[in-house]
């Protein structure tokens, strides 16, 4: 049965207080709408729902306010066009932008104190042509102070232990892969802090990022600025002169960065980075296509971690259900007939969605001698993947099925997140 122990992070004690911003709208006369008070309420709601973004989108007759929660955009409330304008004006004030400029895009950033918590934000404003005339669309991204704790990410214990032992390696590359919004940055920051903690600050850690997503206390983070000739390559070259032992490179996108990163991994540095690839083994062909020699790539890479964030069932309304026949039929392996599938029915706590929070599902490829020689012969990603399974790698699909069969996530969500096996 569903177990709260499986519920990652913040176990809720009370039901949510409801929508502050919506009750503000009801309580205020339309003409006495105060954008600053409304924004305060809206931000309090956003924090309450753990939203990462607030979207203010002019539509036909309204301005729609949406929150991004657990990666999914949800309608929150509708404003009158004039209220929408006031709200965007207020966002410009807090983002230190030009309030009078309504005709060109603007980007700002700052900090706000909401219910005693200081939250950093970025705001982006874009003029649009809406039904109600010229309007502006605003996207606010919130960055809350977080604890980057490897244990708290919700990795299964076996993978966590393997990953932690890889973090003690003196040299080589640890590569993360997975699409955007799969939690890679959080895993990397948590890993760096783990290294720092384990070495009692004796390993010199430096990062190169584009952009620095979170300023993490205790890390020395550099942000590239390609427009000013300070791209990943230049930053990496400069950093190598600063005697780092552990290097984090936000992402490897070009050949020059790839070559320097591999070189660093082969010459006494532990390199943590992300490489875009659909499959855990796709990282090798990707680096080869960027001009890294197969032997060098195979020698430098210690392991590749491929991960996704899977939306989890709401703990208050999850109940047994039977997935559709075609869903079950699409599974490559026969599922135990006694398997108990669970799905959230929707309640006040989860705003009727049936979901609350996300957990990590992953696969960790530790490169062994056999894998190394297969990479050296230029084997394709599919072939490498089959070898990885033969040598005992638990696939991301199996990881997702573990979440499904323990009642943490519905089958349909797992298939949507991972794709067919
Ligand atoms: Zn619920």
Strand percent estimate = 25-35%
Number of helices: 14
Give the N-terminus to C-terminus distance in angstroms: 26 Å
Would you identify the CATH H-level superfamily of the largest domain? P-loop containing nucleotide triphosphate hydrolases
Number of domains: 2
Total number of strands: 15
Give the CATH architecture of the largest domain.
3-Layer(aba) Sandwich
Q: Please provide the ordered H/E string of secondary-structure elements.
A: HHEEEHEEEHEHEEHEHEHHEEHEEHHHH
The ligands found in this model are: zinc ion
Shape: globular
Strand order of the largest sheet: 9-8-10-11-7-12-15
Tell me the radius of gyration: 24 Å
The largest sheet is: 7 strands, mixed
Low-pLDDT stretches:
1-17
Provide mean pLDDT, rounded: 87
Briefly, what CATH class of the largest domain? Alpha Beta
Under CATH, the topology of the largest domain is which? Rossmann fold
Label the structural class.
alpha/beta
- Give the helix level as a range of percent: 25-40%
């Amino acid at each position: 049965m569903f177990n709260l122990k499986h519920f990652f992070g913040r176990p809720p004690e009370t039901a949510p207080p409801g929508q502050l911003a919506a009750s503000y709208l009801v309580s205020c006369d339309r003409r006495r709408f105060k954008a600053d008070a409304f924004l305060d309420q809206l931000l309090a709601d956003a924090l309450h729902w753990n939203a990462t973004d607030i979207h203010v989108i002019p539509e036909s007759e309204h301005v729609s306010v949406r929150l991004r929660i657990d990666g999914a955009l949800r309608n929150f409330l509708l404003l009158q066009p004039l209220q929408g304008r006031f709200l965007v004006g207020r966002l410009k004030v807090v983002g230190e932008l030009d309030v009078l400029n309504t005709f060109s895009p603007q980007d700002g950033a700052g900090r706000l104190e909401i219910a005693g918590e200081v939250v950093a934000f970025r705001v982006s404003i874009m003029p649009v042509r809406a039904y109600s005339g010229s309007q502006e669309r605003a996207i606010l991204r919130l960055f809350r102070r977080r604890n980057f704790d490897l244990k708290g990410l919700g990795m299964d214990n076996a993978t966590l232990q393997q990953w932690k032992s890889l973090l003690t390696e003196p040299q080589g590359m640890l590569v993360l892969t997975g699409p955007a919004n799969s939690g890679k940055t959080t895993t990397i920051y948590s890993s760096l802090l783990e290294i720092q903690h384990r070495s009692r600050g004796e390993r010199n850690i430096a990062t190169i990022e584009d952009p620095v997503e979170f300023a993490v206390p205790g890390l020395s983070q550099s942000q590239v600025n390609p427009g000013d000739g300070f791209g990943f390559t230049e930053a990496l070259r400069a950093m190598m002169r600063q005697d780092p032992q552990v290097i984090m490179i936000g992402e490897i996108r070009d050949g020059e960065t790839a070559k320097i990163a591999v070189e660093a991994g082969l010459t006494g540095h532990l390199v943590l980075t992300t490489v875009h690839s659909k499959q855990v083994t796709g990282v090798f062909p990707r680096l080869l296509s960027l001009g890294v020699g197969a032997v060098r790539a195979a020698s430098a890479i210690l392991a590749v971690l491929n991960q996704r964030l899977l939306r989890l069932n709401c703990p208050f309304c999850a109940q047994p259900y039977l997935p559709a026949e075609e869903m079950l039929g699409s599974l490559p392996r026969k599922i135990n007939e006694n398997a108990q599938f669970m799905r959230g029915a929707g309640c006040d706590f989860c705003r009727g969605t049936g979901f609350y929070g996300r957990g990590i599902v992953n696969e960790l490829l530790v490169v062994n001698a056999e894998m190394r020689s297969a990479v050296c012969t230029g084997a394709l990603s599919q072939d490498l993947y089959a070898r990885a399974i033969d040598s005992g790698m638990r696939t991301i699909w199996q990881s997702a099925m573990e979440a499904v069969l323990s009642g943490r996530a519905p089958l349909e969500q797992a298939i949507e997140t991972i794709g067919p096996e």
